[in-house]
User: Which sequence fits this backbone?
């Protein structure tokens, strides 16, 4: 059992260690380069020559279920493998800005500042599908659907309405009059696109919310408990009598949660559903800005559900790698056309036709090494 | 729990002064061991091997240094902008870019303190049973089972906490506490307010379960290290078992128990997943009540890291990580010093 060795061997050992570390550091750097060149070579039967056969993307978790279905189907149809990492919208934006992935995905459109930070030039927002956020609640012994307005929902989350028998709630829900209980408010604790859409809605309809809390993937909540993920929020609502929280539509549908009807801008109480979410998007087709960055909360239209939003894939308009650009443009085209048929079954709302047209124009504008990506192949 | 924890290697050497470990002494002897290395038959192999051990040790040390440096670099923008206020204010507002982590630090300290208050008596009691009272055929299986708690992945504790512990606390334990202890003046403030079942107390309880094996295993070794002459002396004076434990074992083991608690605390401070699922994750203001939904440093990092899309937001989260790392390092160091002093005073090798 020896514990010490002379000075000279120690020095030698240190040098050796550094040498080993250097070798180890060089090792992995070589491998991906080799891997990438094989994946870019295009000897395959299905993809056209000059087209990449592997793409990587990263971002939003909300559409991850749909995306994995899409990429599975697309691999079968076109022989292109898409590797998607659901690391969250923030991570997706960061990855595409740093050009570490071929496309990013985000539930919220980027801010002007974020667009400026993108290292690869102009970023395009291609809408993929729609999601909506529903209010779920736990009222023991309460029959019928809870009806909420913009004012009551904002009031509850601002901590101004604290009891179920508050006159403002009872005005639309007569049955709540005897429920003299405090409201246990639940929100997401993790940063999430769901929260972004939800707070976007509250900011749109409530000046007090806009000034005090604002819109973001996570905010400084005035009241409430935080649950991690949709399942965390739903679990806390389920376990706490007289509580209320918000989750994604898909999650509520799959788990058959009780959901509240919301009064939309047209003054109608609307049940959240795939159809009422698509209706919200149809309402903005006329007014959507050219870069497709738009919020569709509190949308016009009798059937429009008011807490909805697009989820986007983010791609660079001008790419240097022609093979990547061609493959990516084809994938995007497929997603907004053939891909839409898989939406409804999985609880996502398909894009309205008017929006698909606008997205087509964006995809046609993508270039690889100066040539149109779609025409190139 | 290994017998070869590198952090305590030196203390073992020092402790060995009282024992008859020749090898350890030769190890500290310097020139003698060096000669043996150079002159021995497998000189080259010896040098290679010692070089390899130096490399691995240096790698570990460098990793830690690089980690601290990296965290500090990323945290620099937040440190520059919020200064000391970061540690003393409680607003955590990503929208308006105001960040203060006092409530996170508070939540971490309170849940860890609750855990320690529960786990230390339980751990010491279990260790006493195993080391002093139980026959070996019973003691060994008992400590094995307790130590098994340490290998349960924390997400499993989290799920258990979410589905079993939290509802039980909300509907049974916490109302009972409020009815009884909640009526006591002053102390009652700890159990005031609405009960939601996701709060600092529940977070503390789940941590207690998780650190129990650490506390128990180290205390057990500490008790076993108490020299038998101590016990024999007491027995010779006609002491009962309890008197032996109270007058000979416990006073002797004090420092070691404190160290064991400290190592448990160090684990509790950094625990993330299980606590996140039951602590409430609410940035509400600091309040005396343990029934307030809270937030811990580790939970805030885990929750918000992925979606931190603004630079200052990301930087603030990294600063929380840096604060957490420093706090746990300090606690860990303190605990090791306590255990080390105990080991030296007893003069016997203890596995920690």
Assistant:
């Amino acid at each position: 059992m020896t514990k010490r060795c002379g000075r000279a061997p120690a020095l030698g050992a240190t040098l050796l260690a550094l040498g080993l570390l250097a070798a180890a550091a060089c090792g992995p750097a070589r491998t991906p380069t080799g891997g990438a060149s094989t994946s870019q070579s295009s000897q395959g039967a299905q993809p056209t020559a000059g087209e990449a056969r592997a793409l990587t993307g990263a971002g939003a978790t909300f559409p991850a279920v749909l995306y994995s279905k899409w990429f599975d189907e697309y691999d079968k149809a076109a022989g292109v493998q898409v590797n998607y990492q659901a690391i969250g919208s923030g991570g997706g934006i960061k990855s595409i800005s740093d050009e570490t992935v071929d496309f990013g995905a985000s539930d919220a459109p980027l801010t002007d500042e974020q667009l400026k930070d993108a290292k690869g030039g102009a970023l395009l927002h291609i809408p993929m599908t729609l999601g909506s956020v529903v209010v779920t609640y736990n009222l023991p012994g309460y029959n019928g659907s809870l009806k909420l307005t913009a004012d009551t929902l904002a009031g509850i989350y601002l901590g101004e309405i604290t009891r179920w028998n508050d006159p403002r709630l009872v005005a639309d829900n007569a049955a709540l009059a005897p429920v003299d209980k405090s409201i246990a408010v639940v929100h997401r604790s993790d940063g999430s696109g769901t929260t972004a859409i939800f707070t976007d809605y509250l900011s749109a309809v409530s000046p007090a919310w806009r000034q005090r809390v604002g819109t973001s993937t996570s905010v400084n909540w005035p009241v409430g408990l935080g649950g991690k993920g949709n399942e965390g929020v739903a679990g806390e609502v389920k376990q706490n009598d007289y509580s209320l929280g918000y989750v994604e539509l898909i999650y509520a549908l799959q788990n058959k949660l009780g959901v509240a009807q919301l009064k939309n801008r047209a003054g109608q109480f609307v049940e959240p559903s795939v159809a009422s979410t698509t209706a919200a998007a149809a309402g903005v087709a006329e007014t959507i800005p050219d870069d497709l960055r738009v919020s569709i909360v509190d949308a016009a239209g009798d059937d429009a559900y008011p807490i909805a939003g697009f989820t986007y894939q983010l791609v660079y308009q001008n790419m240097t790698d022609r093979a990547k650009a061609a493959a990516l443009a084809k994938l995007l085209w497929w997603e907004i056309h053939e891909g839409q048929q898989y939406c409804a079954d999985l609880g996502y709302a398909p894009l309205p036709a008017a929006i698909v047209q606008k997205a087509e124009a964006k995809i046609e504008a993508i270039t690889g090494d100066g040539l149109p990506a779609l025409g190139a192949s | 729990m290994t017998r070869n924890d590198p952090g305590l290697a030196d203390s073992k050497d020092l402790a060995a002064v009282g024992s008859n470990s020749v090898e350890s002494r030769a190890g500290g002897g310097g020139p003698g061991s060096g000669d043996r290395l150079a002159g021995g038959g497998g000189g080259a192999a010896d040098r290679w091997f010692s070089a390899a051990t130096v490399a691995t040790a240096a790698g570990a040390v460098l990793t830690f240094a690089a980690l601290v440096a990296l965290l500090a670099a990323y945290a620099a923008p937040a440190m520059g902008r919020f200064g000391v206020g970061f540690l003393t204010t409680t607003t955590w507002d990503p929208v308006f870019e105001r960040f203060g982590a006092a409530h996170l630090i508070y939540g971490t300290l309170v849940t860890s303190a609750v855990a320690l208050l529960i786990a230390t008596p339980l751990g010491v009691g279990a260790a006493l049973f195993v080391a002093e009272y139980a026959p070996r055929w019973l003691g060994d299986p008992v400590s094995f089972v307790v130590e098994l708690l340490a290998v349960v992945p924390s997400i499993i504790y989290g799920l258990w906490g979410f589905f079993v512990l939290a509802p039980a606390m909300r509907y049974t334990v916490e109302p009972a506490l409020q009815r009884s202890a909640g009526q006591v003046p002053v102390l009652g403030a700890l159990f005031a307010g609405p009960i939601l079942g996701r709060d600092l107390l529940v977070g503390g309880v789940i941590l207690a379960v998780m650190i129990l094996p650490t506390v128990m295993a180290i205390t057990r070794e500490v008790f076993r290290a108490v020299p038998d002459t101590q016990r024999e002396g007491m027995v010779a004076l006609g002491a009962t078992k309890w008197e032996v434990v109270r007058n000979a074992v416990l006073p002797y083991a004090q420092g070691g128990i404190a160290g064991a608690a400290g190592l448990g605390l160090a684990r509790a401070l950094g625990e993330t997943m299980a606590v996140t699922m039951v602590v409430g994750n609410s940035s509400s203001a600091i309040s005396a009540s343990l029934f307030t939904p809270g937030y811990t440093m580790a939970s805030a990092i885990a929750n918000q890291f992925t979606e931190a899309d603004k630079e200052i937001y990301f930087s603030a989260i990294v600063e929380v990580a840096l604060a957490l790392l420093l706090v746990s390092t300090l606690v860990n160091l303190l605990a090791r010093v306590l255990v080390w002093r105990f080991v030296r005073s007893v003069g016997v090798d203890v596995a920690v």
Chain A touches chain B through 50 residues (CB under 8 Å). Residues 1-46 of chain A have pLDDT under 50 and may be disordered.
